[in-house]
Amino acid sequence: METCSQDRNPERVSVARVDESGMRQLWPNRFPSASHFLRFCRAARPSGGGATLRGTMSRSPSALFQPFPMRSGMRAQAWRHQPAYRRPRHFHAEPEVNLVVRGSATLGVGAKVFALGSGELVLLQPGQDHELLEASPDLELFVFALRPELAARLGDVSRRAAGSAGQLFPEELARVSEELFAIGSVADATAVESSIVGLFQRIEPRLGRQHVLSRRAALELQADPSVSEAELATRLNATPSDVSRRFHGDIGVRLVEYRARLRLMRFVRLVDAGQSFSEAALNAEFGSYAQCHRIFQRVFRCSPRRYFAGARRELDDKLEPRES
User: Does residue 102 contact residue 118 with C-beta atoms inside 8 Å?
Assistant: First the structure.
């Protein structure tokens, strides 16, 4: 019997760059797993503030497709971190913000690893994989997201490249955290949407900007996942190697993998809307259903038929206990 599963075997990763004062830009050591890499990062942690890029892995880990959990009928949602469990590394179609109110967290974003302290945040765009790797005992973390159709109305958010990090001033953090705590008791969907849309708009000026090639490439791919690397480079007036290098460096995901995720998410959305597998594959910009099936099997670890027959719920709800 076919089942859906995710290969959780630890991968050997190497640090391509570590942005730490007084350290070499190239770090030749190899680490047997992400946990070994994180132990190294903790030892190198500086005392200063600001969202810090601890380093990059030579290869980003595998990830599940898990839609952001929204209550029924909602197009925006905010959740408070529950320390007993965490979601495995995943990606989804909803833009998402992770904000640390208190304590500290280490967040894996594609091949990048961020260390976040109080008031620091990261914006994640559609298709970008992420995972909470470490949490301090006193961590207060909020995540909030918008459905794609609601996010499309926010030009400022759409213009941001994935993985943008920033920091709120103390007075801003106090107001935002108070609003996030209050959202949990609001039952009216329109009021929740209004509050979370407002939060996205307010944090936008606090986010750092990525390179223009990364920003424009992400937007072009989200609008048209069928565009080839050569055509994308032509549109951006750059070479394919420059676009690929900048994209992977800023986004933390290789361009070809990012494009495949966008196509797969569109395929799922079209099948949900009633299209057949073959129709959805072509309309999601796959060359054929056979190509779609092959990529779907690689990413989801099961066939489309098995996924839509019931394995989807298992993957959507998958949680992992927090390591002690």
Answer: yes
